[in-house]
Amino acid sequence: xxxxxxxxxxxxxxxxxxxxxxxxxxxxxxxxxxxxxxxxxxxxxxxxxxxxxxxxxxxxxxxxxxxxxxxxxxxxxxxxxxxxxxxxxxxxxxxxxxxxxxxxxxxxxxxxxxxxxxxxxxxxxxxxxxxxxxxxxxxxxxxxxxxxxxxxxxxxxxxxxxxxxxxxxxxxxxxxxxxxxxxxxxxxxxxxxxxxxxxxxxxxxxxxxxxxxxxxxxxxxxxxxxxxxxxxxxxxxxxxxxxxxxxxxxxxxxxxxxxxxxxxxxxxxxxxxxxxxxxxxxxxxxxxxxxxxxxxxxxxxxxxxxxxxxxxxxxxxxxxxxxxxxxxxxxxxxxxxxxxxxxxxxxxxxxxxxxxxxxxxxxxxxxxxxxxxxxxxxxxxxxxxxxxxxxxxxxxxxxxxxxxxxxxxxxxxxxxxxxxxxxxxxxxxxxxxxxxxxxxxxxxxxxxxxxxxxxxxxxxxxxxxxxxxxxxxxxxxxxxxxxxxxxxxxxxxxxxxxxxxxxxxxxxxxxxxxxxxxxxxxxxxxxxxxxxxxxxxxxxxxxxxxxxxxxxxxxxxxxxxxxxxxxxxxxxxxxx
Amino acid sequence: xxxxxxxxxxxxxxxxxxxxxxxxxxxxxxxxxxxxxxxxxxxxxxxxxxxxxxxxxxxxxxxxxxxxxxxxxxxxxxxxxxxxxxx
Lengths: 576, 87
Description:
The complex is a heterodimer. Chain A is an alpha+beta fold. Chain A is built from 19 helices and 23 strands. Chain A folds into two domains: 166 residues, Penicillin-binding protein 2a (Domain 2), CATH 3.90.1310.10; 329 residues, 3-Layer(aba) Sandwich (Beta-lactamase), CATH 3.40.710.10. In chain A, the strands form seven sheets. In chain A, strands 2, 3, 4, 5 and 8 form a five-stranded mixed sheet that branches. Chain A starts with a helix and ends in a 12-residue tail after the last strand. The C terminus of chain A is likely disordered. Chain B is mostly helical. Helix content of chain B is 77%, strand content 2%. Chain B is rod-shaped. Chain B starts with a helix and ends with a strand. The relative contact order of chain B is 0.04. The model of chain B has no long low-confidence stretch (mean pLDDT 86). β23 of chain A pairs parallel with β1 of chain B.
């Protein structure tokens, strides 16, 4: 009995144990099903989120070069340090070495981390040298990671700053051609999946999702050598005359390409932390001014084009002033009865006004707007101004008379240069391009070639001994151009002591290759005439540019003794 | 007949499983390789752009002009020292 009773007890016990095992197993299986089947997506997602990460592969931004391949903007890889604040703070490690690497006080670093504790991504420092980045990573602080980025460098610095512009810290164009051609330059970033460890470090690359596409390079029309020359001379002139600002542009007369474009004051695009926005403005395309006497070339061209005038037609400018309505128009002195060519050479306001008044206003307006006045040049440069040319319907006699010597209209330096290109290019208006032009350019005819040639001849006289622009002369070359000295407009009329000095010109005379406009704003002191302030800058840059471009001197008589005629063996060991 | 078919299926399943593992492994290996090659390419690009930058910094017109004027004592010849070869 005892034995059997013992047996019953052990039977019961066995069943009890078996049942509890079974219950345990059922629970385990249920848990397994729960994890593996019911909550699978949620758990898998969270697991991946902790271990797998999709990282962006930054794309290289295209390089900007000048027309000869000299780099003007290059992207080089740099590293940015970012942190997961929560992880860094809970690590309990000393943050002093990290703070030292980042060049910030420990307290500030800690504050920053605490303020953003809720976030998963905080930049600690952007765009640092790769060597410094390695040092930071070697500290082994959890939650600190690197990101590869690109930083844009501008080797030409302030010399080309206004043309090239710059990008912001996220590599997006902000100014200049960096902005205008942002789409072209920008690459498409790629992405890849990576495996990371508990501390957020990337352990292995898993798969590529999209490869990064680098941006395209941009070849500008700028010739960096001429750009430098122009910058140096303009800066020297602005400094010497204590001027407020200055702008200058050099165009290729045959293609409308911008070979150089400089402004003063400029800025260093590599370090622009403490600069004001006004420095970034490209004065050549954004600042408008009244063109003054430089417009006379087009008044004369319109006169010749009308058929009412020839180069020899005489105009009576006596007694050196005349009244239009209540307005008196004056010359510097009484030039007497002079021909059209002399009006240009002496820059006679009376002569130009009398000619303009004799023309049909509508036709004059048509002509002035056809050379590009009052409309943008179509260069596509960001923020380009269009200047101003009032409709001829509203022109009064006084207005026509003042437009004849460049008041009541406004232009940008680039517009003025484009207009002079018409004279240089035998009457064809060319579109302006900042990018190197590879095919021949077709322009629009706005003036007959014959008249363009005649106007050039007259402009050449300006640079003669007798003209207002004699200091624009370049030894060995024939030069044509026009001076301008403009009283600046101010509240209630025109200033008597604030001027803009201008010179617009081209060389060589017969077949102009270069067109150049120099604008100097508010030169101080006794010299303020365009012929004294702007013309010398023109001469120096033109001389250098002609030599750099290997354009043969065409004014050989001026170099009388220094010409070796063809076929004659020069002295020395030049034998072939 | 049925058993043969069954075992054939089992074997092919097994083989394809193995193949998958091998292919996966190879894909990983190739991916790692391409990553290291891309890294090498990026490093070379990086070095190239840095050298380009260095070169253009050394060769800025300002510096060339300053050196040629001060150290080499060069100057633009005056017009009466210039000869023009007229062809």
